[in-house]
Amino acid sequence: MNNILVFPMVLPIIAGVLLLFFRSNPNIQRWGSILTMIVVFLISLWILQQVMIQGILRLDFGEWLPPFGITFVADAFAMLLVTASSLVSILCLLYAAFAKDEKREHFFLYPFLLLLVAGVNGSFLTGDLFNLFVCFEVMLLASYVLMTLGGEKKQLTEGIKYILINILSSWLFLLGMAYLYGTLGTLNMAHLSVRIAEAGQPPLLTTISILFLVVFSLKAGLVLYFWLPGSYGALPTAVSALFAALLTKVGVYALFRFFTLLFYHEPSVTHTMIGWMAIATMVGGSLGAIAYKDIRKIAAYNVVIAIGFILVGLASFNYEAIQGSIYYLIHDILLKGMLFLLIGTVIYVSGKTRLDQASGLIANYPLFGWMFLIMLLSLGGIPPFSGFAGKLLIGQGAIGAQEYVMVATAFLSSLFVLYSLLRIFLNMFWGETSIRLKDQMHLSKGTLAPLLILAVLTTGLGLGMGILAPYVSEAANVLMNPELYIEKALNHK
Amino acid sequence: METIITLLVGILVSVATYLLLSKNLIRVVLGTAILSHAVHLLLMTMGGLKIGSVPILGDQVETYTDALPQALILTAIVISFAVTAFFLVLVYRTYQSTGTDNLYELKGSKDE
């Protein structure tokens, strides 16, 4: 019965491999991959419902009982993220299908996008540390290819840096895993948690946990985000949207898992450290977001700010804050996808990458302009949209934890988000039209469709926060009470 | 035995660090390869190096070798092999299109 847990990872892999054989037929590639992701999305919705009814689900591969075999463990937190990431990948694929970048499509754009999603979903679902590493690598290898696919000079040079930094962080990951296996003798996450609790997390284990903090900070762009703006700026629109929506979030997910399930005994060391790192990230990201005129850079620094903001919730480490982080994480997966799709479309229609080089786009593309406004209000956390609930709860939680510096920085950083995006809006969308109506590029309805769906989603999620509430509180409940996870992940039926 | 291997890991990591910090791209690739070998050795050492036992636990068996690190290393080797292969191709392709393998000349583009 629980075999269905494997589908969010395996379906994209199977579809990706099958699509390799249809190289000459772009339509099969486009619609095949979109169809696969729709199926994956529906399956993950169904699993999410089952998790709410039956509690945490587990799949033991090859009937090897934990802690010996590899397991997939689906709790509400993991499933919410799988569902959100599948949804945003449908929309990014839809955008790619209408953007018709034939040069890249011919060189297996869709199979690699699917493999990327497979790695992401696998990372969310796995209950085994080594399997997490493998899923990370699946995701990273696909991202290396997508990073350099097309072979533009900028992509190649940025690709080298991106790959190098990721090889280094994978190396640190293996190093941490070697130490953890050497000290605790297991790699199953629930079992690790039990053993760490038995040992009471001595300084040695805290040191290892800081090693993992460095690893996942590199992936998530927490403080160590210096690789991020350059590499995201070099990508084609649909790919950059998927990267911005998913890749850093996997790092954030891993940080949440590690510091709520495994290393939660010494919050005065680890969580304080995460707090200061989050503050540094928000400050650095805010400075970056207002320093540049290149709109791709501004968008990339907005990714960085959001990472800092989500981790304020983890650093505060109480029920409200964790709940807020989960809301914000889901919101951010959708909205960062939307931001990058919009930015890519702005560059496509205006042909310019700097915000002072075009103006008055809203006269040419009214619907598109208003969607940009919705996106920026939502990212800024203005009430009717989906960013608000997350920001509110994170703020409440952080005040509850008496982390006033963090609260102040978090809400100041929201102002910087608003300012940096409003600057794009005021400069590029308002003012004199720079493109005459008869010269303007045609924006097909197909390209606008995914953007419109995302705009409706952010409004809908904002107005109907109640729909998400039971799922999010269940997810936060499991994160705050690791024994719930351990009991389901280790019991022998 | 474990101490000697750990020292060897240390030497490998310092060699790899030296290579990674050089300007030449091929040296950087070699550095990453050596770096991954170092951590594979470390994984093996952390699992405990026992000589002469089989990885099967039974009633009459007194000692056995932990087989898990071997499985982990095998997977890690395959992954690092794939990454190194990809990286080598990328470096060659970059050399073809930019005409240089010096990292200093590959710094960010001029329009920033």
Properties at a glance:
heterodimer, A: 493 residues, mainly alpha, 21 helices, 2 strands, globular, B: 112 residues, Helix Hairpins, 3 helices, 64% helix
Helix content of chain A: over 70%
Beta-strand residue fraction of chain B: under 5%
| CATH top level assignment of chain B | Mainly Alpha
Q: What is the count of helical runs of chain A?
A: 21
CA radius of gyration of chain A is 21 Å
Task: Give the N-to-C terminal Cα separation of chain A.
Answer: 14 Å
Q: How do the SSEs of chain B run, as a string of H and E?
A: HHH
Q: How many beta strands in the DSSP annotation of chain B?
A: 0
Mean pLDDT of chain B: 87
Account of the 3D structure:
The complex is a heterodimer of chains A (493) and B (112). Chain A has helices at 7-19, 26-54, 76-99, 102-106, 109-125, 129-148, 153-184, 189-199, 203-220, 228-233, 237-262, 270-291, 295-316, 319-350, 361-364, 366-380, 387-400, 404-429, 445-463, 465-480, 482-490, and strands at 57-60, 71-74. With 493 residues, chain A is mostly helical. Chain A has one domain (2-490). In chain A, α3 packs parallel to α14 (319-350), α13 (295-316) packs across α17 and α14 runs antiparallel to α19. The longest helix of chain A is centred in the middle third of the chain and has 32 residues, at 153-184. Chain A is globular, with a radius of gyration of 21 Å. The mean pLDDT of chain A is 92. Chain B has one domain (2-49, 64-102): Helix Hairpins (Orthogonal Bundle). Chain B is 64% helix and 0% strand. Chain B has helices spanning 2-20, 25-46, 68-98. In chain B, α1 (2-20) runs antiparallel to α2 (25-46) and α2 (25-46) packs antiparallel against α3 (68-98). The longest helix of chain B has 31 residues, at 68-98. Chain A binds chain B through residues 130, 133-134, 137, 141, 144-145, 148, 151, 153-154, 156-157, 159-160, 163-164, 167-168, 170-171, 174-175, 177-179, 181-182, 187, 230, 294, and chain B through 20, 25, 28, 32, 35-36, 39-40, 42-43, 45-47, 68-69, 72, 75-76, 79, 82-83, 86-87, 90-91, 93-94, 97-98, 106, 108-109, 112.
